[in-house]
Amino acid sequence: MSPHVKIDADARRPSKPAYAGVLRSNGAWLRNPRGGVEDVAEMAAAGRRWLGLNMHEPDWTPKPASWEYAVRPRALRLGLTVFPWLRVYDRSDVRALRDVAERWSEQAGRALPVAPNLEVEAHDRLPPAAVCEELDGYEGEVITFTVAFLYRAVDWQPLAERGAVVLEIFPAESEDSTRVAGCVARAHEAGFRDVFLCYGAYAGQTPDLYDLALPHSVYTGDDVGAGNWRRWSTT
User: What is the domain-level CATH number for residue 100?
Assistant: First the structure.
C-alpha cells in the first residue's frame, strides 16, 4: 500500500460550471443493512450528507426492504439524501436498480440519483451504452461508480452524458489509485465533466492516506465501523 495518496493541484480544480449534484458533499457507500451501519447519526455528525445503499450482497436478502429496518428511515429523518447503488453485471441488474430508484424517488417527491457500479463488465457484456439504454427516461442523475483508471477500450461517453463519475481510490488493491491526478485526467479524457473520489476504508486503508478536504465518499461505511466515524470527520 502506498504510504500516502498524493493529489496534485490538477485534481483539486473544481468543475466549471459548478457541479450541482449530491456528490458536492461528502457521503458513504453502505454494503449491508445490518453490517454495523445502523448509527446513521454518527455518520451525519462526521459530515456525511448522503448514503448510497447497496441493493445486493450474498450474505443478506437482496431486497431494498432490508434497508427499511433502520438505516433508510433514520437517514431520511436526519435530512440525508439516500439513493440505491448496485454492482451491475447485465441489463437485468440495471433494470432492478432503476426500479428501486424510481420507487424511492416517488416517495421523496423528487428524482433521486441512481448509481450503477460498473467495472470489468463494461468491456463486453454490459457496455455503458447498454446501461444508458436501460436508464433511458429516468429523470434523476446517473452516477457511474467505477475503477480508478477508466478502461481505454471502453466508450464511456454515454454515461458521461448522464452525470458524474466516482473513482475507486483503493490503494490496497490498485496501483492506479496512488496516481490520483492521472486517474482524474483519464476520466475527463473519457468524457466525464465531473469527477469525484471514493476512498477505500477496508484492508487497513485509513483516513490518513487521503485528502479529506476534497469532496469524497467512503467505501464502505461497514468497514469504517460503528464508533469510528470521528476519524473520517470532515466537520
Answer: 3.20.20.80
